[in-house]
Design a protein that fits this description.
Layout (H helix, E strand, L loop, with lengths): L1 E6 L9 E2 L2 E2 H16 L4 E4 L9 H10 L4 E8 L9 E5 L4 H18 L3 E6 L4 H5 L4 E8 L3 H8 L1 H14 L1
Parallel strand pairs: 1-4, 1-5, 5-8, 6-7
Antiparallel strand pairs: 2-3, 6-8
Helix pairs in contact: 1-6, 3-6
Length: 170
């Protein structure tokens, strides 16, 4: 299977920031760990492997030009409410292959990390979910603006664990 990993944000767009963390850095670290986990069984294409900015259209083009079988966008969440926490997995609609991947990944991450489940949600308005030809999911691995989630995200072992859990679900 050909899987495109998309570490969200990067370069001039750091994504969410909080508790000494930058989302773009966590996303890239997770993507690199996930690529290692997946490469024994799958072909992995990264939209970026360094801290650089790519437009949403460029990210989709990479996936579409490589005839991906699955597109996985990696993110951390943020909210003005510091109590907002947990993992959620987004997909284009609540049916089809993207939804099935989202369900498996969400179940695996929540079961293996003990973080709160915010569930699987349809987000047809998100550019990368709408404009990739392959089934696509977007993982929000905790809230960078929540102290407990941020402490979890700071631990490199937790990032490696999340990568293993995502790979197992895929």
């Amino acid at each position: 299977m050909r899987i495109v990993l998309d570490p969200g944000h990067g370069g001039k767009d750091p994504g969410a920031v909080g508790h000494g963390l930058q989302e773009a850095e966590i996303n890239l670290r997770l993507a690199k760990c996930l690529a290692v986990e997946l490469r024994s069984k799958h072909t992995v294409i990264m939209t970026r492997s360094v801290d650089e900015y790519l437009s949403l259209a460029q990210r989709c083009k990479i996936s579409n030009n490589n005839n991906a079988d699955l597109f996985v966008s990696l993110h951390c969440n943020a909210a003005t409410n510091p109590n907002a926490n947990g993992i959620e997995t987004l997909c284009y609609s609540l049916s089809g292959r993207g939804y099935n991947y989202a369900l498996k990944v969400q179940k695996s991450l929540v079961g293996g990390t003990g973080l709160v489940s915010r569930g699987v949600k349809a987000r047809p308005d998100l550019y990368v979910l709408k404009h990739t030809k392959a089934p696509a999911i977007l993982i929000e691995l905790g809230f960078i603006t929540n102290k407990k989630d941020a402490e979890w995200l700071k631990n490199p072992e937790n990032i490696r664990l999340a990568a293993r859990l995502i790979a197992q679900a895929i």
